[in-house]
Design goal:
This is Virginiamycin B lyase. Keywords: Signal. Strand 16 and strand 17 form a beta hairpin. The chain has a single domain, classed as Methylamine Dehydrogenase, Chain H (7 Propeller), CATH 2.130.10.10. Helix content is 2%, strand content 44%.
Amino acid sequence: MKIRSRLFPALAAGAIALLMMPALATAVPPPPPDTVKRLSNPDNLPVIRPGQNGWYGAYVSRVIKPKVRKIGSLAGRDIVELQTPVKVSGMGKYMAEGPTGHIWYVETREDKIIRIDPNTNEMTQYFVPKGAAPYSVAVDNDGTVWATAHGIEMLLELRPEEGVVYAHQPPSHGFLIHINVERKSNTVWFTQPGNNQVVSYRHDVGFREYPSPTKQSGPGRLDFDAEGNVWFPELYTDKLARLNPTTGEITEWDTPSKNGLPAGVRVEGKIVWVSEPMADALAAFEDGKWREYKIPTTGSVVSTNVTDEEGFVWFTEGGWRGSAGGNKIGRLDPRTGKVEEFDLPRSNSQPLGMTLGKDRSIWFSLVTGAHVCRILPRRTAR
């Protein structure tokens, strides 16, 4: 195993210089002006183009009760699918849970951010400006919904209760894609694999950019540990990286499989889980050591994962880079290495984003087919 550690150039003077240096930022947005209100008709949505910072009205739909049907079960837990209120299939990449327990996902082709009430399965659509094409979503402590609009290279800030959206232009472009929120500091983070960096944003400091020390590494989906360190995979160089935001130090480790294309990271306590879609494997990194778990399905394209209350790791197979993959979901027992899989009934469903709800439900998105799925908790499965 090779370990590398270095400071990026802006931090050569050390941590004190970081605290004193100005943030790489656009102007901090003011509160929404009274002239910006939610729209009463979705036909009046404005069109947004790259660089058009500012507040926009959103249209908030009536609540929709979707059709729900059971599609099977895995490990004694029922799996149901919910029909989504879209005409054009093209769901965004990931799902997120907000502080109130609502589940959020995006519909990229229809410029929508959608909220699901887990108590009723009811859905509310938030229509954002045309052309935004929201791609990935996260929710902060205040219930503000953040989404990447990689087609126009902007960061979207949706305030659901007010029905308004602010579009932020980052300091530089680089295929703005994966997003997450570090809850302790309520800081938004996203990766820009096109210009080889991770970026943070907060209203009071604006944007800050952290270049990867390895050229053309391709930072992917990121997560955070209890100390606030940022962990991210480096897709094109088969590495795992950890960023200390206070000092700017980035440390790298080689991942277990060559050409595994590590695409996503999830931190669970002291374990950092890394998906390796081209190696058909999930890898666990703890205390400087790796354990790698192979997925039985060849070409699985293992993607996102969560850990349930019993310590099992659930994961999706497909959707990454538009691949059908295994068209399955699976459950791994890290204690034994045993993997159980469930074949999804719709071909080319592309299961991708997965998140864990407060009621222990596991939600996952299907990139195609206009459905999302829910794995019910064992105690309520029926």
